[in-house]
Amino acid sequence: MQIKKFIVIPLLVVMLASSCSLLPTVTVTVTPTPTVSPDIEKEIYKVNYYLQTNRCSKQQLLDKLVLESDLSVEDCRYVIDNCGVDWNEQAYQIMCDVKGHNPYSKQYLTDRLLRSKFTYDEIDYALNKGGFNWNGEALLKARSILNNGREISEIELRNSLEQALFTEENIKYALEKCGADWNEQARKAALQYTLSYPQYTRELMKEYLLEKHHFTNEQTDYGIANCDVDWNEQAYNIALAMIRSDNITSKEELINALIKLQFTQAEAEYAVNEYNTGINPGVTGIYIR
Q1: What is the pLDDT of residue 29?
Q2: 234's torsion region: left (phi>0), alpha (psi -120 to 50) or beta?
Q3: What is the pTM of this model?
Q4: I need a labelling partner for 231 at 20 to 30 A (CA). Which of 83, 141, 187, 287 fits?
Q5: What would the pLDDT profile of 255-277 be if each residue is shown by its tens digit?
Q6: Does some domain include residue 104?
Q7: Domain identity same for 238 and 274
Protein backbone atom coordinates (compact mmCIF):
# COMPACT_ATOMS: atom_id res chain seq x y z
CA MET A 1 0.00 0.00 0.00
CA GLN A 2 2.86 2.34 0.69
CA ILE A 3 4.35 1.62 -2.69
CA LYS A 4 1.06 2.46 -4.44
CA LYS A 5 0.81 5.79 -2.62
CA PHE A 6 4.37 6.63 -3.62
CA ILE A 7 3.50 5.99 -7.26
CA VAL A 8 0.16 7.85 -7.39
CA ILE A 9 1.30 11.12 -5.77
CA PRO A 10 4.06 12.01 -8.29
CA LEU A 11 1.71 11.10 -11.11
CA LEU A 12 -0.92 13.54 -9.83
CA VAL A 13 1.64 16.31 -9.53
CA VAL A 14 2.79 15.71 -13.06
CA MET A 15 -0.79 15.83 -14.36
CA LEU A 16 -1.51 19.12 -12.59
CA ALA A 17 1.66 20.70 -13.89
CA SER A 18 0.84 19.56 -17.38
CA SER A 19 -2.72 21.00 -17.29
CA CYS A 20 -1.57 24.38 -15.89
CA SER A 21 0.87 24.77 -18.71
CA LEU A 22 -2.09 24.73 -21.10
CA LEU A 23 -3.89 27.75 -19.47
CA PRO A 24 -3.52 31.22 -21.12
CA THR A 25 -1.17 33.69 -19.52
CA VAL A 26 -2.97 36.55 -17.78
CA THR A 27 -1.15 39.85 -17.18
CA VAL A 28 -2.49 41.97 -14.31
CA THR A 29 -1.58 45.64 -14.31
CA VAL A 30 -1.97 47.46 -11.03
CA THR A 31 -2.37 51.23 -11.37
CA PRO A 32 -1.12 53.00 -8.31
CA THR A 33 -3.48 55.47 -6.68
CA PRO A 34 -2.30 58.96 -7.64
CA THR A 35 -0.93 60.97 -4.82
CA VAL A 36 -3.00 64.12 -4.27
CA SER A 37 -1.08 67.03 -2.89
CA PRO A 38 -2.37 68.87 0.16
CA ASP A 39 -2.88 71.97 -1.99
CA ILE A 40 -5.23 70.10 -4.32
CA GLU A 41 -7.13 68.58 -1.40
CA LYS A 42 -7.47 72.05 0.10
CA GLU A 43 -8.88 73.45 -3.16
CA ILE A 44 -11.36 70.57 -3.49
CA TYR A 45 -12.63 71.40 -0.01
CA LYS A 46 -12.84 75.11 -0.83
CA VAL A 47 -14.73 74.42 -4.06
CA ASN A 48 -17.35 72.34 -2.27
CA TYR A 49 -17.69 74.95 0.45
CA TYR A 50 -18.13 77.68 -2.18
CA LEU A 51 -20.85 75.73 -3.96
CA GLN A 52 -22.88 75.41 -0.78
CA THR A 53 -23.94 79.05 -1.21
CA ASN A 54 -23.17 79.73 -4.87
CA ARG A 55 -24.17 78.19 -8.18
CA CYS A 56 -22.11 78.18 -11.35
CA SER A 57 -21.08 76.09 -14.33
CA LYS A 58 -18.05 73.86 -14.55
CA GLN A 59 -16.30 76.32 -16.87
CA GLN A 60 -17.09 79.28 -14.65
CA LEU A 61 -15.66 77.50 -11.64
CA LEU A 62 -12.57 76.46 -13.56
CA ASP A 63 -12.00 80.05 -14.68
CA LYS A 64 -12.37 81.24 -11.10
CA LEU A 65 -9.97 78.61 -9.77
CA VAL A 66 -7.30 79.34 -12.39
CA LEU A 67 -7.55 83.05 -11.63
CA GLU A 68 -7.59 82.89 -7.84
CA SER A 69 -5.54 79.83 -6.86
CA ASP A 70 -1.83 79.06 -7.14
CA LEU A 71 -2.46 75.73 -8.84
CA SER A 72 -1.50 74.97 -12.40
CA VAL A 73 -4.24 74.79 -15.02
CA GLU A 74 -3.86 71.00 -15.06
CA ASP A 75 -4.28 70.78 -11.29
CA CYS A 76 -7.26 73.11 -11.46
CA ARG A 77 -8.90 70.79 -13.95
CA TYR A 78 -8.20 67.88 -11.60
CA VAL A 79 -9.92 69.74 -8.78
CA ILE A 80 -12.99 70.49 -10.90
CA ASP A 81 -13.20 66.94 -12.24
CA ASN A 82 -12.97 65.43 -8.78
CA CYS A 83 -15.04 67.78 -6.62
CA GLY A 84 -18.14 65.61 -6.99
CA VAL A 85 -20.44 68.32 -8.35
CA ASP A 86 -23.45 67.46 -10.53
CA TRP A 87 -23.22 70.14 -13.23
CA ASN A 88 -26.60 69.19 -14.66
CA GLU A 89 -28.15 70.06 -11.33
CA GLN A 90 -26.18 73.30 -11.19
CA ALA A 91 -27.70 74.28 -14.55
CA TYR A 92 -31.18 73.38 -13.32
CA GLN A 93 -30.84 75.35 -10.07
CA ILE A 94 -29.55 78.45 -11.86
CA MET A 95 -32.41 78.22 -14.36
CA CYS A 96 -34.89 78.06 -11.46
CA ASP A 97 -33.25 81.10 -9.86
CA VAL A 98 -33.49 83.07 -13.11
CA LYS A 99 -37.05 82.08 -13.88
CA GLY A 100 -38.67 82.34 -10.48
CA HIS A 101 -42.37 82.94 -11.15
CA ASN A 102 -41.75 84.97 -14.33
CA PRO A 103 -42.76 83.71 -17.78
CA TYR A 104 -39.77 83.22 -20.08
CA SER A 105 -39.22 81.62 -23.46
CA LYS A 106 -37.11 78.53 -24.03
CA GLN A 107 -34.62 80.54 -26.09
CA TYR A 108 -34.27 83.22 -23.42
CA LEU A 109 -33.43 80.64 -20.73
CA THR A 110 -31.09 78.83 -23.12
CA ASP A 111 -29.20 82.04 -23.86
CA ARG A 112 -29.04 82.87 -20.17
CA LEU A 113 -27.46 79.51 -19.32
CA LEU A 114 -25.08 79.75 -22.27
CA ARG A 115 -23.85 83.07 -20.87
CA SER A 116 -23.13 81.17 -17.67
CA LYS A 117 -21.00 78.77 -19.76
CA PHE A 118 -23.09 75.64 -19.36
CA THR A 119 -22.93 73.03 -22.11
CA TYR A 120 -25.89 72.33 -24.37
CA ASP A 121 -26.33 68.91 -22.74
CA GLU A 122 -26.51 70.50 -19.30
CA ILE A 123 -28.98 73.10 -20.58
CA ASP A 124 -31.18 70.43 -22.17
CA TYR A 125 -31.20 68.58 -18.86
CA ALA A 126 -32.28 71.72 -16.98
CA LEU A 127 -35.05 72.64 -19.42
CA ASN A 128 -36.37 69.09 -19.63
CA LYS A 129 -36.43 68.77 -15.86
CA GLY A 130 -38.34 72.05 -15.67
CA GLY A 131 -41.12 70.52 -17.77
CA PHE A 132 -42.29 73.85 -19.13
CA ASN A 133 -45.21 74.43 -21.48
CA TRP A 134 -43.73 77.11 -23.74
CA ASN A 135 -47.10 78.05 -25.24
CA GLY A 136 -48.35 78.54 -21.71
CA GLU A 137 -45.32 80.66 -20.85
CA ALA A 138 -46.03 82.89 -23.87
CA LEU A 139 -49.65 83.27 -22.79
CA LEU A 140 -48.62 84.27 -19.27
CA LYS A 141 -46.21 86.81 -20.71
CA ALA A 142 -48.90 88.26 -22.98
CA ARG A 143 -51.36 88.59 -20.12
CA SER A 144 -48.79 90.25 -17.88
CA ILE A 145 -48.13 92.85 -20.60
CA LEU A 146 -51.84 93.48 -21.09
CA ASN A 147 -52.41 93.83 -17.35
CA ASN A 148 -49.70 96.39 -16.69
CA GLY A 149 -52.04 99.27 -17.54
CA ARG A 150 -50.43 100.25 -20.82
CA GLU A 151 -52.52 100.57 -23.97
CA ILE A 152 -51.23 98.19 -26.60
CA SER A 153 -52.22 96.90 -30.03
CA GLU A 154 -51.98 93.33 -31.27
CA ILE A 155 -48.92 94.21 -33.34
CA GLU A 156 -47.21 95.78 -30.32
CA LEU A 157 -47.96 92.70 -28.22
CA ARG A 158 -46.57 90.47 -30.96
CA ASN A 159 -43.41 92.58 -31.08
CA SER A 160 -43.00 92.28 -27.31
CA LEU A 161 -43.30 88.49 -27.47
CA GLU A 162 -40.81 88.34 -30.33
CA GLN A 163 -38.36 90.42 -28.30
CA ALA A 164 -38.82 87.90 -25.48
CA LEU A 165 -37.65 85.23 -27.98
CA PHE A 166 -40.83 83.18 -28.11
CA THR A 167 -41.35 81.09 -31.23
CA GLU A 168 -43.99 81.84 -33.83
CA GLU A 169 -46.04 78.92 -32.55
CA ASN A 170 -45.86 80.29 -29.00
CA ILE A 171 -46.84 83.78 -30.16
CA LYS A 172 -49.84 82.64 -32.22
CA TYR A 173 -51.10 80.63 -29.27
CA ALA A 174 -50.71 83.58 -26.89
CA LEU A 175 -52.45 86.06 -29.20
CA GLU A 176 -55.32 83.67 -29.76
CA LYS A 177 -55.84 82.85 -26.08
CA CYS A 178 -55.04 86.14 -24.33
CA GLY A 179 -58.60 87.43 -24.65
CA ALA A 180 -57.64 91.01 -25.57
CA ASP A 181 -60.30 93.41 -26.85
CA TRP A 182 -58.30 95.38 -29.41
CA ASN A 183 -61.09 97.90 -29.96
CA GLU A 184 -61.05 98.64 -26.25
CA GLN A 185 -57.27 98.91 -26.31
CA ALA A 186 -57.59 101.49 -29.11
CA ARG A 187 -60.20 103.43 -27.12
CA LYS A 188 -57.91 103.50 -24.07
CA ALA A 189 -55.01 104.67 -26.24
CA ALA A 190 -57.15 107.45 -27.70
CA LEU A 191 -58.20 108.55 -24.23
CA GLN A 192 -54.59 108.57 -23.09
CA TYR A 193 -53.76 110.75 -26.07
CA THR A 194 -56.33 113.34 -24.96
CA LEU A 195 -54.68 113.46 -21.51
CA SER A 196 -51.23 113.94 -23.00
CA TYR A 197 -52.02 116.72 -25.48
CA PRO A 198 -54.18 119.78 -24.68
CA GLN A 199 -55.10 120.41 -28.32
CA TYR A 200 -55.75 117.74 -30.87
CA THR A 201 -57.83 116.83 -33.87
CA ARG A 202 -59.27 113.60 -35.20
CA GLU A 203 -56.53 113.60 -37.82
CA LEU A 204 -53.75 113.86 -35.24
CA MET A 205 -55.35 111.25 -33.00
CA LYS A 206 -55.78 108.87 -35.93
CA GLU A 207 -52.15 109.32 -36.94
CA TYR A 208 -51.13 108.59 -33.34
CA LEU A 209 -53.16 105.38 -33.13
CA LEU A 210 -52.14 104.10 -36.56
CA GLU A 211 -48.45 105.00 -36.63
CA LYS A 212 -47.39 104.87 -33.01
CA HIS A 213 -49.55 102.00 -31.78
CA HIS A 214 -50.20 100.19 -35.09
CA PHE A 215 -53.90 99.67 -34.52
CA THR A 216 -55.95 98.75 -37.59
CA ASN A 217 -58.12 101.35 -39.30
CA GLU A 218 -61.23 99.74 -37.88
CA GLN A 219 -59.82 99.70 -34.35
CA THR A 220 -58.62 103.29 -34.73
CA ASP A 221 -62.02 104.53 -35.86
CA TYR A 222 -63.64 102.75 -32.94
CA GLY A 223 -61.19 104.26 -30.49
CA ILE A 224 -61.73 107.80 -31.75
CA ALA A 225 -65.51 107.43 -31.82
CA ASN A 226 -65.70 106.07 -28.26
CA CYS A 227 -63.07 107.98 -26.30
CA ASP A 228 -65.60 110.48 -24.86
CA VAL A 229 -64.00 113.57 -26.39
CA ASP A 230 -65.94 116.83 -26.54
CA TRP A 231 -65.10 117.69 -30.13
CA ASN A 232 -66.98 120.99 -29.91
CA GLU A 233 -64.62 122.05 -27.16
CA GLN A 234 -61.63 120.85 -29.09
CA ALA A 235 -62.74 122.79 -32.16
CA TYR A 236 -63.00 125.88 -29.97
CA ASN A 237 -59.50 125.39 -28.53
CA ILE A 238 -58.02 124.92 -32.00
CA ALA A 239 -59.93 127.96 -33.25
CA LEU A 240 -58.38 130.10 -30.51
CA ALA A 241 -54.92 128.95 -31.47
CA MET A 242 -55.58 129.65 -35.16
CA ILE A 243 -56.91 133.15 -34.54
CA ARG A 244 -53.88 134.06 -32.45
CA SER A 245 -51.24 132.60 -34.73
CA ASP A 246 -52.65 132.40 -38.29
CA ASN A 247 -54.15 135.91 -38.72
CA ILE A 248 -57.58 134.48 -39.50
CA THR A 249 -60.14 137.31 -39.60
CA SER A 250 -63.31 135.86 -41.14
CA LYS A 251 -65.83 133.32 -39.98
CA GLU A 252 -65.75 131.50 -43.30
CA GLU A 253 -61.97 131.29 -43.26
CA LEU A 254 -61.95 129.87 -39.73
CA ILE A 255 -64.71 127.34 -40.45
CA ASN A 256 -62.94 126.10 -43.58
CA ALA A 257 -59.68 125.77 -41.66
CA LEU A 258 -61.37 123.70 -38.96
CA ILE A 259 -63.10 121.47 -41.50
CA LYS A 260 -59.73 120.76 -43.15
CA LEU A 261 -58.66 119.44 -39.75
CA GLN A 262 -61.60 116.99 -39.88
CA PHE A 263 -63.91 118.89 -37.58
CA THR A 264 -67.52 118.77 -38.70
CA GLN A 265 -69.42 121.80 -39.97
CA ALA A 266 -71.40 121.90 -36.73
CA GLU A 267 -68.26 121.70 -34.58
CA ALA A 268 -66.59 124.47 -36.59
CA GLU A 269 -69.64 126.75 -36.29
CA TYR A 270 -69.81 126.03 -32.56
CA ALA A 271 -66.18 127.11 -32.20
CA VAL A 272 -66.78 130.41 -34.03
CA ASN A 273 -69.97 131.19 -32.11
CA GLU A 274 -68.32 130.30 -28.79
CA TYR A 275 -65.43 132.57 -29.60
CA ASN A 276 -67.67 135.47 -30.61
CA THR A 277 -69.83 135.01 -27.52
CA GLY A 278 -66.95 135.16 -25.11
CA ILE A 279 -64.81 137.79 -26.81
CA ASN A 280 -63.82 141.00 -25.07
CA PRO A 281 -62.91 143.47 -27.84
CA GLY A 282 -59.56 145.10 -27.30
CA VAL A 283 -58.46 142.43 -24.84
CA THR A 284 -58.93 138.94 -26.25
CA GLY A 285 -58.96 139.66 -29.96
CA ILE A 286 -61.18 140.51 -32.87
CA TYR A 287 -64.77 139.65 -33.61
CA ILE A 288 -65.07 136.98 -36.31
CA ARG A 289 -67.72 137.89 -38.91
Answers
A1: 53
A2: alpha
A3: 0.75
A4: 287
A5: 888 898 888 899 988 988 887 77
A6: no
A7: yes
